[in-house]
Specification:
Blueprint lengths: L2 H32 L1 H22 L3 H5 L8 H25 L4 H29 L3 H26 L2 H25 L12 H33 L1 H25 L3 H9 L3 H37 L13 H23 L3 H26 L2 H29 L2
Helix pairs in contact: 1-2, 1-6, 1-9, 2-4, 2-5, 2-8, 2-9, 4-5, 4-8, 5-7, 6-7, 8-9, 8-13, 8-14, 9-12, 10-12, 11-12, 12-14, 13-14
Main location: membrane
Subcellular location: Cell membrane
Keywords: Cell membrane, Membrane, Transmembrane, Transmembrane helix
Length: about 400
């Protein structure tokens, strides 16, 4: 491993994790400094912003950095991103006004989504840096923006006590950072004068299956949260998000551990190594079972204590400690689905990938309202398990069909 690759791995991993942890801490900060109701509004905005971010990014980053032959020009990738950003932003505003949200909630949705869409805007510039093997710069950018995010929310709420003004400052500071730092650094690695290659619309059409998959995959866990807020209100939504937070951090950490092994699965698939591939699947299943057992034991022993440490100013959250158990199972299902999506991508089964995600979305949409009405906020956890569980089972079925053909 050369020195630049070591720098890339170190800085990109550390910076990305720091950025995610600072984003996850927003719920803690808003609950502590602005109250449960304000955090419920933010949680609703987060649910909508996640889907908009998937639409804006269009599943294009991997396609961009692997386009070594230059089928599409750097300029084309940039222009296509402006198209998807515009579509995602417009969709966010339409959704906010179609639903019967308060004026304050609509501002929170619009500003938080705008802040998250900066990630998609910077993503295409980070793609130029990645092709130049400068992921260390990308990692540093993520780390700095993570700290800016946490600092802005803390200072904004302390000084103003106003979530809308705080989110406006958050959006502005992150946009300024990308303009002042990311763009100048990335511009030197992008040939934006070149207009050769395919058109913007050809690029969007070629990446459309990846975009559909990414949007569906994000929407599955978002559907129960959307209905949670609609059926039970913003406070219950806030409690659900706050209890989910420590489990969500575990989920991201575990996915980071699993993803590097995707390269091994790709090699085994291309070499048609049936024994090695299925041995890897069995090891994956065993790891997921161990994760479930360890997570269930951990929250049973330490869950209430952990929530009391995270939310010292909101003791009522402790009443929702039992939510941790189904959320651990939801996390295991999510990790399984994420890995299976990668494996189906390796197998180039885009049809199975999209149909599996559609099945999960349909399941989540069908059971969310009945489960919420029957089990209150616990219904959101059960609906999440149902949606992601159905997704994982369908993805596994499609993968096994592809395996039968690949290893025949």
């Amino acid at each position: 491993m050369n020195s630049q690759l070591r720098k890339n791995l170190l800085f990109n991993t550390a910076g990305s994790l720091l950025f995610y942890l600072c984003q996850a801490a927003l719920n803690l900060l808003v609950t502590a400094l602005a109250g449960v109701t304000a955090n419920g509004m933010l949680a609703t905005a987060m649910t909508i912003a996640n889907v908009c971010l998937s639409v804006a990014s269009f599943g294009m980053r991997t396609f961009q950095v692997s386009d070594l032959a230059g089928k599409y020009a750097d300029r084309t990738y940039l222009l296509s991103r402006y198209v998807t950003l515009t579509a995602a932003g417009a969709g966010c505003l339409v959704f906010a006004f179609v639903n019967s949200y308060s004026a304050e909630q609509r501002w929170v949705i619009a500003l938080y989504t705008a802040y998250r869409l900066i990630e998609s805007w910077s993503d295409v510039w980070h793609g130029y840096l990645q092709k130049a093997e400068r992921l260390d710069v990308v990692g540093i950018s993520f780390g700095v923006r993570g700290l800016v995010t946490a600092g802005t929310v803390t200072l904004g709420l302390v000084l103003t006590g106003n979530l809308v003004l705080t989110l406006a400052a958050l959006f502005a500071l992150n946009a300024v950072y990308v303009l002042a730092v990311d763009l100048p650094l990335a511009r030197g690695h992008a040939d934006l004068a070149n207009k050769s290659g395919g058109s913007v619309w050809a690029l969007l059409a070629e990446c459309a299956p990846l975009a559909v998959y990414a949007a569906l995959n994000t929407a599955i866990p978002s559907v129960p949260r959307y209905f949670c807020e609609r059926v039970l209100g913003t406070e219950k939504m806030s409690y659900f998000n706050n209890v989910f937070l420590p489990v969500l951090i575990l989920q991201v950490a575990v996915i980071y551990l699993f993803v590097p092994f995707i390269t091994t699965f790709a090699r085994l698939w291309n070499q048609k190594d049936r024994v090695g591939f299925f041995r890897g699947l069995v090891m994956l299943a065993a790891a997921l079972a161990a994760m479930w057992a360890a997570g269930a034991a951990g929250v049973a022993l330490l869950g209430r204590w952990g929530l009391s440490i995270l939310y010292p100013t909101s003791p009522e959250i402790l009443d929702y400690t039992p939510l941790l158990q189904p959320l651990v199972l939801a996390t295991v299902c999510t990790v399984a689905s994420t890995v299976l999506c990668h494996l189906l991508t390796i197998a180039r089964d885009m049809r199975g990938l999209i149909l599996g995600n559609l099945a999960g979305l349909a399941a989540a949409a069908a059971v969310s309202v009945p489960l919420l009405r029957a089990f209150d906020v616990w219904g959101a956890a059960f609906a999440t398990i149902a949606g992601i569980g159905a997704q994982a089972l369908c993805l596994l079925a499609f993968l096994l069909v592809k395996c039968r053909k690949q290893f025949a």
